[in-house]
TrEMBL record:
InterPro entries: Papain-like_cys_pep_sf, Peptidase_C19_UCH, Ub_carboxyl-term_hydrolase, USP, Znf_RING/FYVE/PHD, Znf_UBP. Pfam families: UCH, zf-UBP. The gene is Usp39_0. Keywords: Hydrolase, Metal-binding, Ubl conjugation pathway, Zinc, Zinc-finger. Residues 1-56 form the UBP-type domain. It is an enzyme of class 3 (hydrolase). This is ubiquitinyl hydrolase 1. It comes from the Eukaryota. The keyword Iron does not apply. It comes from Casuarius casuarius (Southern cassowary).
């Protein structure tokens, strides 16, 4: 918020930090004066937060192995970037990295239009996994990153919530168990059906 009692407003007055970004609208504001800042030099920031890909860009991902230069000067290959280890989430990072390089899965999640209109029951939190995995996928494949690594924090928060804390950030987990749960959860959240086991009579 930008109101007089909002954290952003108070912070702008106390610390003389004046440029703020609304993460929902991706618009920049100057506080405490409360006016929108329109400046094309800020587009790099919004692109890093919400990278987008055209169908043509997605189709060409495997045809070109072009290094990108991050704003910090390091070079990286989009799709082959590090994931921050927050506490003990390396087991999940390894699975997420591997899945991000499965072309059909990657291509589906790079284009948000593929899943953003899927209808979900009221109160269903599992679709959060789909949204966060798509966001992470687009950040991993972003050719205009600020650094050659990405934070999976929002993705991992969704995992903790949706797994009812069976998979944690602070406690080591089993990668195979996580992979199995994660793929089944994604399938279900995308409207997949649960198959009943056949009786062996």
């Amino acid at each position: 918020g930008r109101g007089l009692k909002s954290h952003a407003y108070i912070h702008s007055v106390q610390f003389s930090h004046h440029v703020f970004l609304n993460l929902h609208t991706l618009k920049f504001y100057c506080l405490p004066d409360n006016y929108e800042i329109i400046d094309s030099s800020l587009e790099d920031i919004t692109y890093v937060l919400k990278p987008t890909f055209t169908k043509q860009q997605i189709a060409n991902l495997d045809k070109q192995a072009k290094l990108s230069r991050a704003y910090d000067g390091t070079t990286y290959l989009p799709g082959i970037v590090g994931l921050n280890n927050i506490k003990a989430n390396d087991y999940a990072n390894a699975v997420l990295q591997a899945l991000s390089n499965v072309p059909p899965l990657r291509n589906y999640f790079l284009e948000e239009d593929n899943y953003k209109s899927i209808k979900r029951p009221p109160g269903d939190i599992m679709f959060l996994l789909v949204q966060r995995f798509g966001e992470l996928m687009r950040k991993l494949w972003n050719p205009r990153n600020f650094k050659a690594h990405v934070s999976p924090h929002e993705m991992l928060q969704a995992v903790v919530l949706c797994s009812k804390k069976n998979f944690q950030i602070t406690k080591q987990g089993d990668g195979v168990d996580f992979l199995s749960w994660f793929l089944n959860a994604l399938h279900s959240a995308l409207g997949g059906t649960k198959k009943k086991k056949k009786s062996e009579w």
